[in-house]
Design goal:
Length: 89
């Protein structure tokens, strides 16, 4: 295994992880900002008001994008299994 191949493999893994996490994290981040603005405007500082909507939205994103997430993982592992003979041979 050459250093270039190892870097390419790690870069592909990190890119895949970032792409998958962005689908789950960014909507929760945006909802958190909206809830924080509403809390600041109404002076309501309840912790469950920030946690519960973000948790529900994250679970909904897992449900709605679950097929794409699994498809992305399967595709990455298929590409990895095609690269394995090049690692040892």
């Amino acid at each position: 295994m050459t250093p270039e191949f190892a870097v390419e493999l790690i870069a592909a893994a990190v890119y895949t992880i970032m792409k998958m996490l962005a689908v789950l994290i960014i909507p929760g981040l945006l909802l958190g900002i909206v809830v924080a603005v509403v809390q600041a405007a109404t002076s309501v500082q309840e912790q469950t008001l920030t946690f519960l909507p973000r948790m529900i939205l994250t679970l909904m994103m897992v449900v709605f994008s679950g097929h794409w997430l699994i498809e992305t993982l399967v595709e990455w592992f298929a590409n990895l299994s095609e690269m394995i003979p090049g690692v040892f041979g």
